[in-house]
Amino acid sequence: MYSKIIGDSGYYTRECELLTCQRKNKQQGSALIEFSIVASLFFFMLFTVIDFGVYGYVKLTMQHAVSEGARYAITGLADLDPDTTDGADRKEAVIAKISQSSDGLFSNVMTVDNIRVLDIDGNPVAGFGESGELIAIHLDCTWPISSPFLYPMVDDGKYNFTVSATVKNENF
């Protein structure tokens, strides 16, 4: 092997240059292949972490919104109703409070039909309950994923989650 590198005459010759060139040609492109494998794994992990981070932010924001809405609901007030032409409606006021507290995510993750208000036995409650009643407010939310790698792992490419708050209405 040593003689091939040096050459038959013991000196560096044209034969050595050809052998060195052949070795370089065999390795050409291997760095590109290695980079593409490592880069694809890196981007997979990066997009997955970002997607889970955004999902966590959305879920915590909606949990905060339902908590704020529940805190407002226990007071029995209706002063936040956006449409007061037909009298203040407590249900609309609580929904407005939830929407205000959601940092603009309310319309992106759910509709008003996805709000469930249940009593202690799990029965639906009209509005947000009566004075002194124990209620649970549930928001059924959906958030689309952005990472194509996670699409097959979730239902229809969307995270479905529920945030809840349980409170006892004050005497109003």
Question: Can you characterise this structure?
Answer:
The chain has 172 residues and is α+β, with helices and mostly antiparallel strands. It has one domain. It contains five helices and three strands. Helix 3 (30-73) packs antiparallel against helix 4 (90-101). It starts with a helix and ends with a strand. The relative contact order is 0.14. The model has no long low-confidence stretch (mean pLDDT 87).
What structural keywords apply?
5 helices; 3 strands; rod-shaped; alpha+beta; 172 residues; 3-stranded antiparallel sheet; 46% helix; single chain
Task: Describe the structure concisely for a colleague.
This protein has 172 residues and is α+β, with helices and mostly antiparallel strands. The chain contains five helices and three strands; from the N terminus they run αααααβββ.
Record the SSE blueprint.
Blueprint: H1 2-6, H2 14-27, H3 30-73, H4 90-101, H5 106-109, E1 115-118, E2 134-144, E3 158-168
Antiparallel strand pairs: 1-2, 2-3
Residues in helix, %: 40-55%
Mean pLDDT: 87
Main beta sheet strand tally, sense and closure: 3 strands, antiparallel
Oligomer: single chain
E-strand count: 3
Number of helices: 5
The SSE order reads: HHHHHEEE
Terminal residue distance: 96 Å
Shape: rod-shaped
User: Approximately what portion of the residues adopt beta-strand conformation?
Assistant: 15-25%
Q: Structural class of the secondary structure composition? A: alpha+beta
Kindly give the count of domains: 1
The radius of gyration computed from the alpha-carbon positions, rounded to a whole number of angstroms, is: 32 Å
Q: Unreliable segments (pLDDT under 50, ≥5 consecutive)?
A: none
Physical arrangement of strands within the biggest beta sheet: 1-2-3
